[in-house]
Write a structure and sequence with these properties.
heterodimer; A: 115 residues; B: 114 residues; seven-stranded mixed β-sheet; 11 strands
């Protein structure tokens, strides 16, 4: 069975400092992993995805994530936070079970960015 | 513009009054899905559809129905809504059902059942 755990429900950083949002996953198969962002009162937008190619994945708005199979982790990072990064972030796992695109969402991490 | 649209965006209703939330995509996607989002639980899948006329239950299907008569539309039906169905609902679609396909999400429908 697949599952995903986001280790922090809330993260608070100052503008200009690094961002780290932690995600661990469990999957019986070779997983695809995604990070989605949800700004207040908006839908979900894909930040980046890992699908068995390069383990360091670059996404939009300066975010990147590294797939570490040995640690079953897929942490999201950004070198310098911007006020517009304040949002909720979801780590998502999808795996080859039944051949259809079922996404398993983490509970979410709310990122606050302070001036 | 390629997008997934949902209507209505906000709905307040009463227990037992049947309602339908529409979902439409203009990207010729095969796969469509419905999720509900509740605080601290992330998104959970309600139903999905691999293609026209093929639907199946997700993780939380109780109290919901769906239909897929046309490729572009995937309405969510609550025959007799109850307060525990108060939630934020998202429709999503992807080109194929394969796990590497990115899902595109609609803007969400906030439903309150009194």
């Amino acid at each position: 069975a697949q599952s995903v755990t986001q280790l922090d429900s809330h993260v608070s950083v100052s503008e200009g400092t690094p961002v780290l949002l932690r995600c661990n996953y469990s999957s019986s198969y070779s997983p695809s992993l995604f990070w989605y962002v949800q700004h207040p009162n908006k839908g979900l937008q894909l930040l980046l995805k890992y699908t068995s190619a390069a383990t360091l994945v670059k996404g939009i708005n300066g975010f990147e994530a590294e797939f570490k199979k040995s640690e079953t982790s897929f942490h999201l990072t950004k070198p310098s936070a911007h006020m517009s990064d304040a949002a909720e972030y979801f780590c998502v796992v999808s795996a080859e079970t039944g051949g259809y695109n079922k996404l398993i969402f983490g509970a979410g991490t709310r990122l606050a960015v302070h001036p | 513009e390629a997008q997934v649209t949902q209507n209505p965006r906000y709905l307040i209703t009463v227990t037992g009054k049947k309602l339908t939330v529409t979902c439409s995509q203009n990207m010729n996607h095969e796969y469509m899905s419905w999720y509900r989002q509740d605080p601290g639980l992330g998104l959970r899948q309600i139903y999905y559809s691999m293609n026209v006329e093929v639907t199946d239950k997700g993780d939380v299907p109780e109290g919901y129905k769906v239909s897929r008569k046309e490729k572009r539309n995937f309405p969510l039906i609550l025959e007799s809504p109850s307060p525990n169905q108060t939630s934020l609902y998202f429709c999503a679609s992807s080109l194929r059902a394969g796990v590497r396909n990115e899902q595109f999400f609609g803007p969400g429908t906030r439903l309150t059942v009194l």
